[in-house]
Each structure stands twice: as structure tokens, then as C-alpha cells.
Amino acid sequence: MKALRLTLLAVVVVTVLAYFYEGFFGSLSVCSKCGRTKNSSRTYWIPSTTVKETALSRFCDELAGGAAHDHDWLFASGGGGEITCAIGEGRYLYPALRQEEPIQALRQIRQRRGDDAAKLWLGRLLDPKMSDEARISLSLLILDSPEFDTAYEEAEEDFTAASAWETR
Ligand SMILES: [Zn+2]
């Protein structure tokens, strides 16, 4: 009984120390192909990984029709131990993962313009360098769309103009 208590105590102490010192590291990544998120953490020798669906990844799955892919994880943020806060390109994709408007727009584009157009915009939305512009253009497409085709052309123009501005 005593041995068990000592073991438990040791586990608690090590875990607490691990958390406050170098033993703990946690990070969040985003897949640039499907928009899933991956939470990785490690407490000393115990690693754990959780992959989560997002609203965007559900659309990606529909579009891919169940075809599998190797996830391409972009580091978004993390911290622990010596590194208090690390950030990476994946963080630019966060806003695109859960907002309704861009995803609604993607669905409409797929319906009206086909899979290729939907894939084109999805690629933009999951590219850290273009995600913001793509998200804004897609939201506009949903918010003021008196007529889909006109709104689509406008979204395309907005996006191209914004990207050109960005790369200057
Ligand atoms: Zn993926």
C-alpha cells in the first residue's frame, strides 16, 4: 500500500514539474489540405495527439468524396518549457476553419461553378498567404449576392486586386 502511495505521489510530482518546467510542450497545427486541426502535447515521455474536424474540413471531405490524403500540417502555435510562445504560418488559417460565410460560399460555388472552382477557392482559403483575402472575398459573395454570377465575378476581382496589392 505504501509503495503504491509513493508511486502515485511520484507521478503527481513529476507531472506537476513537467507542466511547469521543460517536460510539457503543446502545439496546434492546421492541415493545409483539409482544414483539420491537430493538437499535440507531450508531458515528459507521454505524447498525445488529437486530430479534430472543423466546419471547413467537413466541406473538404464532401468535395474529396472520401478520397484520402496525407495531411500537410502547418504549425500554428505552441508553447511550453523554454519556449513560452511559438507561432507559425498555420495561424493564418484559423479564421477560415469555423466561419460560416466562406464555407457557405464554397458550397454555392461548387453548386453553380463546379468542383474545380470550389477546389480553386478552397486552395486559396487554405494557403496562409492568401487565406485572409480569400475569406473576405468569399464572405462578400455571400453577404451581398443579388445574383450569384455577378457576385462571383466580383469576388474573383476583389481577390485578385487584394492579392496583387499584397505581393507588391
Ligand atoms: Zn488533411
Strand content range: 15-25%
| Major pleated sheet | 5 strands, antiparallel
Total strand segments? 5
Distance between the termini: 70 Å
SS summary, helix count: 7
Radius of gyration, CA atoms, in whole angstroms: 21 Å
Overall geometric form: elongated
Q: What is the count of distinct domains?
A: 2
Strand order of the largest sheet: 3-2-1-4-5
- Mean pLDDT comes to 87
- Heteromolecules bound: zinc ion
Low confidence ranges: none
- Share of residues in helices: 40-55%
Order of helices and strands: HEEEHEEHHHHH
By secondary-structure content and strand pairing, the structural class works out as: alpha+beta
Briefly, what is this?
By secondary structure, the protein is α+β, with helices and mostly antiparallel strands.
Task: Report on the architecture of this protein.
With 168 residues, the protein is an alpha+beta fold. It has helices at residues 2-20, 55-64, 94-98, 100-113, 115-125, 131-143, 148-167, and strands at residues 24-31, 37-43, 46-52, 73-80, 83-87. 26% of the residues are buried. The mean pLDDT is 87. The structure holds zinc ion.
Can you lay out the helices and strands and say which pair or pack?
Elements lengths: L1 H19 L3 E8 L5 E7 L2 E7 L2 H10 L8 E8 L2 E5 L6 H5 L1 H14 L1 H11 L5 H13 L4 H20 L1
Antiparallel strand pairs: 1-2, 1-4, 2-3, 4-5
Helix pairs in contact: 4-5, 4-6, 6-7
Core attributes:
168 residues, alpha+beta, 2 domains, 7 helices, binds zinc ion
